């Protein structure tokens, strides 16, 4: 057996361990009664240890060296590169740093739950300092091994190939037009009349509607399910994708848009090519590309006026309200495109969301590079919120720099993915519009050509090309913010 | 660290792997969409390999030898003995035999699904011959290591301490009175008028009723759940017990009695002592004792007249049928104690069930000991069915010797557990009746003293004493068939 084949088998084995983790993790979030948590956490920690042992098995170094000398097809070369990337990510950190990180992260996150509620920045900052210190050590090690800058070395974990130089360019462009765009949209929307549909919307009916919409969006129920969890997510494995949502009896749109969002993530997973199953080359390209698929479904498709013409009658039927004008497609379109600056990122609309992301990016970049310290965060947060969204968070840590979970467990470099996803999605849609009349297709209830495009240009490529190449092959150009801007202007100012 | 402690940690680790297996197995049966099956089976097979590697780790032999020389408390001595028993079970068979068994079992079982439907005994028997041959090899190896006879060595896997000599004695006693008892019961019931409640009984209402009854039976929903699967079972782990049922819109009693049965299994698991969690000493004593708990709940408690007085109004309320005389406690009692000889074991009532088990026991015992061959099975089956239940299965393999799944995968030695469970349950109930007025307690809706007795005498003992000792400590005598007979006479002839 070639060393390349041995590596393939090894990574398929790792993916089987990841499968067990995905299902037990889904169960923990969606099914498990509370009393099962301790034993579950212990069982999953054991699994993580076994995964780590396998992912860092000492023989792998030799296998990679040998495989690199074997005669391989171009596809195998790429597959090998992706296996090696995965191996290096797992191998670079010394075990004691991994453990220290895990402990500090758990501690910080656990305390954060109550500290956030109590607005206790000082206490929180003591834990966060430790987390940042360890993240800096990690960044230093990864930077030395990859030749990247420290923050870029972390960014690379989530968005391979993306750099601070690139992000600074993209985000400064967004910053140059975003505040004034928000202002204009707010002015325009001030004169629009929108009615809020009055609840209750029974959960069972919301569930039926969700399943119906998922089917229309091509979700394959033979290879996945929809359930409920406190924090909605897309989990499971490509042949069995588990998405979740959270229903609110008084508002059906948030759960429904959440379901559409997760359906986008799910279709990417379900669409990954079977031939590379279990191998890194067959996995989703990056967090940003993943988010581009969920945002394509949610923002590019579902919140558009033509799509609301599909959704509105489905909703009216599901809730048996054929005469409720609040459920008209016109009103639902207005409702689902409201723009309002707010404190909380996860509640933000499509237009203000990038401001939240850019703010976090700028702070975490400088934090990891050592240009600022944890103690500087609140003031910077307040300054940037005021500058980008006109809102001050002075003294309000709960709704300011303590609102997110990401930093508590040391996930620095993740935030940019959200806005990269929005930009990728807009660029993909612009490319699709050059090939077909999207609005007509939607009005004809014929989404298949759109899905085919995504399948061909994104899903079936998995990680076989770089993000850069994927963008160029799919859209003819590298990522740029122009399409995102055009999309926002078109939707929020012209219509 | 002592070697004893090392062993404890090792077995706790094994129990964490078993946890992952239990949850992913539950998911596969109760949640997984069909398209997820291949990847799931591969992931679980990988887990089985890892479990086997850990369970047969080469250092364990030395650890056991060292631990046996350490100064241990009496409890530790027992715990060590149970760990060693588990280790020996896993270690005795050579790897190639384990693999051959697994392959032959899968092949036989897979083909059996269609062969059973087609009544194709000849084709089936070719696969079964291979399975029996491997089971005989296994039995031979286990017999040599334990000093037991071949069949006893397999029996010991499920019912440690039980022997053919003992079973022959118990079962020949049952055989001496069972056929005539069945005859008498049939005569008596021939004059009774029973009405079948008319459906439909909506699934949602059956589900509510099930949950309600489970709560009254003390099922802890903080540490477990109820779901649906094709073949009902009790799975999960002690702190998170997953039971399943299968609803039929036209008949609520079968699902409900199934739920009560699985609740008995579940309470045993939930009641196992926390101090021994993850260790063999802390596991259920045997398959027979496990079945005794489910049958205690189902047969001793739920199908009794006083309990039907609790169930009937709950059912009437759940289905909103306060005036349906078919849902009266008197009618439901009659309905749930019907006796009718039939071909199918899993559909059998409490009285005819032992006949099905004894028949299988006698055949598998002789098969493993080499006194008969696979080709002899159909004739023996027909002869025994005719003798015990007055039904001929000549030429009808589908409803005869091909009806069960157990032999297809080589689980010889398991069948006796069902009837042992029924006898243990009757003996436990007889002992409880000496201490308290069970019928009065049920009528007062005060089941707690009964549960406390089970908890003290069975659940909290786990595997810390032998089955024999457990019986003697709980009931003052060794297992005997007399209590089971008394129970049947009392319920089916006297009332
Ligand atoms: Zn997302
Ligand atoms: Zn049972």
From TrEMBL, chains A, B:
Q: Which reaction does it catalyse?
A: Release of a C-terminal amino acid with broad specificity, except for -Pro
Matching Pfam families: Peptidase_M32 (PF02074)
Q: Which UniProt keywords apply?
A: Carboxypeptidase, Hydrolase, Metal-binding, Metalloprotease, Protease
Looking up InterPro entries in the UniProt record yields: Peptidase_M32_Taq
Task: Cite the EC number.
Answer: 3.4.17.19
Q: Which SUPFAM superfamilies match?
A: Metalloproteases ('zincins'), catalytic domain
MF annotations from Gene Ontology: carboxypeptidase activity
Q: Write out the similarity annotation.
A: Belongs to the peptidase M32 family.
**Function of this protein?**
Broad specificity carboxypetidase that releases amino acids sequentially from the C-terminus, including neutral, aromatic, polar and basic residues.
Q: What is this protein called?
A: Metal-dependent carboxypeptidase
């Amino acid at each position: 057996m070639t060393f390349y084949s041995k590596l393939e088998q090894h990574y398929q084995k790792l993916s089987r361990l990841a499968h067990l983790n995905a299902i037990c993790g889904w169960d923990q979030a969606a099914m498990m009664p509370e009393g099962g948590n301790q034993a579950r956490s212990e069982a999953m920690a054991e699994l993580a240890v076994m995964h780590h042992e396998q992912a860092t098995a000492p023989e792998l170094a030799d296998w990679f060296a040998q495989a690199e000398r074997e005669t391989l097809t171009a596809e195998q070369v790429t597959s090998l590169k992706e296996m090696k990337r995965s191996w290096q990510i797992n191998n670079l950190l010394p075990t004691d740093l991994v453990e220290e990180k895990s402990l500090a992260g758990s501690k910080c996150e656990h305390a954060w739950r109550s500290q956030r509620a109590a607005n206790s920045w000082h206490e929180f900052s003591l834990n966060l300092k430790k987390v940042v210190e360890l993240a800096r050590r990690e960044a230093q090690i990864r930077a030395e091994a990859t030749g990247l800058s420290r923050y870029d070395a972390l960014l690379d974990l989530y968005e391979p190939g993306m750099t601070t130089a690139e992000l600074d360019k993209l985000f400064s462009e967004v910053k140059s037009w975003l505040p004034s765009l928000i202002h204009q949209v707010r002015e325009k929307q001030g004169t629009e009349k929108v009615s809020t549909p009055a609840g209750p919307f029974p959960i069972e009916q919301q569930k039926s509607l969700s399943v119906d919409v998922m089917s229309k969006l091509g979700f394959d129920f033979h290879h996945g399910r929809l359930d409920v969890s406190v924090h909605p997510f897309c989990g499971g494995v490509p042949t069995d994708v588990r998405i979740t949502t959270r229903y609110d009896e008084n508002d059906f749109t948030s759960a429904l848009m959440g379901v559409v969002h997760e359906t986008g993530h799910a279709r990417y997973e379900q669409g990954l090519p079977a031939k590379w199953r279990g191998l890194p080359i067959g996995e989703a390209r990056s967090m940003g590309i993943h988010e581009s698929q969920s945002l394509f479904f949610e923002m590019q498709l579902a919140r558009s006026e033509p799509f609301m013409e599909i959704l509105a009658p489905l909703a009216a039927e599901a809730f048996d309200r054929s005469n409720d004008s609040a459920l008209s497609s016109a009103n639902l379109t207005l409702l689902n495109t409201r723009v309002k600056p707010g404190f909380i990122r996860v509640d933000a609309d499509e237009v203000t969301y990038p401001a939240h992301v850019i703010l976090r990016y700028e702070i975490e970049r400088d934090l990891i590079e050592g240009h600022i310290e944890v103690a500087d965060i609140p003031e910077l947060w307040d300054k940037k919120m005021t500058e980008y969204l006109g809102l001050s968070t002075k003294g309000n840590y709960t709704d300011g720099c303590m609102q997110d979970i990401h930093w508590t467990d040391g996930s620095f470099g993740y935030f940019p993915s959200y806005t990269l996803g929005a930009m990728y999605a807009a660029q993909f849609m612009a490319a699709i519009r050059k090939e077909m009349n999207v609005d007509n297709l939607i009005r004809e209830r014929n989404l298949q050509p759109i899905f085919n495009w995504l399948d061909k240009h994104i899903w079936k490529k998995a990680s076989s090309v770089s993000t850069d190449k994927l963008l160029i092959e799919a859209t003819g150009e590298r990522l740029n913010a122009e399409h995102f801007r055009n999309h926002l202007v078109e939707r929020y100012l012209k219509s």
